Amino acid sequence: MKTLKKFIPMAILIVVGLFVPTVLKSQFYMQSAIYVVIYMYWASSWNILGGYTGLFALGNGVYIGVGAYVTAVLFVYCGITPWIGMIIAGLVAGLLSVLIGYPVFKLKGMYYSLASIALMSVFELIFNNEMEIFGVYTGGPNGLRFPVTGRALDMQLSSKTSYYYLVLALLVIVLLFSDYIQNSKTGFYFRSIRANQDAAASLGVNVLKYKLTAHFISAFFTAVGGAVYVTTFLYVNAKQVFGMDLSFSMVLFCILGGANTLWGPVIGALLMVPIQQALRVAAGVELAALSSLIYGLALCLVMLFMPDGLLGAIKKLIAKRKTATVAPLAAAVTDAGQGGAEDE
Amino acid sequence: MSDNVILEVQNVTKRFGGLVAVNDVSFKLHNVEILGLIGSNGAGKTTLFNMIAGAYPPTEGKIIFKGREIQGMRSDNVCHLGIGRTYQICQPFGAMTVRHNVMVGAFSRYKKRSEAAEKANEVLEKVGLYYRADALGSELTLPELKRMEVARALATEPEVLLLDEVIAGLNPTEVDIFVDLIREVKEREKLTIIIIEHVMRAIMNLSDRIVVLNQGIKISEGLPAEVAADPLVIESYLGGGQ
Ligand SMILES: Nc1ncnc2c1ncn2[C@@H]1O[C@H](COP(=O)(O)OP(=O)(O)OP(=O)(O)O)[C@@H](O)[C@H]1O
Ligand SMILES: [Mg+2]
Question: Could you tell me which chain A residue has the CA closest to the CA of B121?
Fold first, then answer.
């Protein structure tokens, strides 16, 4: 019964997700749908680090960039297909996150967040200003173009719809993985670290090891998303992948929907990406330049007034008036959270 | 009796800047005994626990657990070796249920979720908190929090348990219940316990032996009756209105 209830939201996601392309006919709307799903995916990837483990990294876009560039370079210079490249990119980003995590964990709270932004900015600067990195031509501000082959084997898919299904599959994978983690020893350890790392350590939790684990997992998934993202454009440049926008957005969407819950990031992105797209169309370039400022502000407001996000707010509301009519919804929402209510 | 020593604190000193919180303290802990650790506020009792449990290393001295030096070891490793501790100021994982709080401790011995849950249930039953298993850590009352602290530590299956003022703040009835509980758990699990407490009735009643700290220095050690009659202890601690 419990597992059944848990899989209902997942089933809804998959069914609705599969039918979206039959409704959205135009290329423009399909591109928007891709954005919605990939942001759901990134917000979910961030959730593992920022939500479950409470490590408030604000510069996780750095792994999108690393994933993107590693995949691009492997394809352009070594002819390695992005299907394999994205996995290598994920591993490289994971490794980088562990190397970075080691010194950065000495920093507490806000300083950790700032350090992660600083890191991303450094990457943006380097990739934007240097034409070559480690002797490999990455094009600086001109970016790097993927040679067009048009072969599905090179992840060059024939339509937006195909790319959409690809990112949908990624989303389902990261959600299933998150759910698995949440219900395992690792997930319990993540949550204990988030709550109180000294108490966690006294109960046998190797805090550093599990923080690095969270970093690795989050960076891996984020980078794989970055790899697919740039492959849909067949082009990568530094501003596009290392900018503040991507990093801030994934955090904002996750927190708005409800960090530390399975479905929060999905709901957050579902609501916000269309708004973001509409604003971009309506206001054009000037507003786009201001977007990281807007995201920053929005993030502050959400954290001030709705720290548990929409799902958290709904949960509270339901807890207040537990009537029979909303009970199934309550169960679904609770299940989506902390590994489920249980009768262990 | 020396072959029966499970934990030994040897000339341990802790300085915080200019402050000497613990000053050249030594004592031995024997298998399956309850050692009371008393002393006025700021005497260095919690600091001593923190060093034994690995929260921070001593400035000087050795801590030997079952023949092995453990001073400066990380607290998760100390936990795995078999030393559990509770916090004077309760440290619940507020957003997690009581059962899940305790499972975090149980995971140090059991990899699988179902096993950890079983262990947590068993321990919660033991400390009389099972009825609150599904409540959030943040929803507990003080006596319940103290029980949860003990339950979490027990779930790590320690051989030595460090209890830091688990009785403080409870009403007299609860104190009696808790004293019984501690004695019961000790007997059943063959636990060795160091207990810090200001409630004299409880500590005199529970402890096999008592160590008294005053301003970081050990000023007395012995059977409860001996310590209670020690003029130095009466003057520096017991006399002070306790
Ligand atoms: N991390 C720290 N940094 C600086 N000083 C500290 C620190 N921890 C404790 N102290 C100081 O060390 C002394 C001993 O503190 P400790 O907490 O060990 O006392 P205690 O015997 O547990 O007292 P109480 O009965 O009030 O709990 C106190 O003067 C305290 O202020
Ligand atoms: Mg103390």
Answer: A344
**Residue length of chain A:** 344
CB A10 within 8 A of CB A168: no
| Cα dihedral: B48, B49, B55, B57 (round 10) | 30
Q: Which listed CATH number (1.10.10.10, 3.40.50.150, 3.40.50.300, 3.90.740.10) goes with B1-82+158-242?
A: 3.40.50.300
Residues in chain A whose Cβ is within 8 Å of chain B? 183-185, 188-189, 191-192, 194-196, 198-207, 260, 338-339, 341-342, 344
Q: What is the pLDDT of residues B44-87, one digit of tens each?
A: 999 999 999 999 999 999 999 999 999 999 999 999 999 999 99
Q: How far apart are CA A46 and CA A253, in angstroms?
A: 10
| Full-model pTM | 0.90
Domain map (residue ranges) of chain A: 2-307, 315-344
Cβ contact B104–A183 (<8 Å): no
B100: chain A residues, CB-CB within 8 Å: 188, 191, 338-339
Å from CA of B108 to ligand 2 middle = 26
Chain A residues touching residue B80 (CB < 8 angstroms):
204
ipTM over the 0.85 cut-off: yes
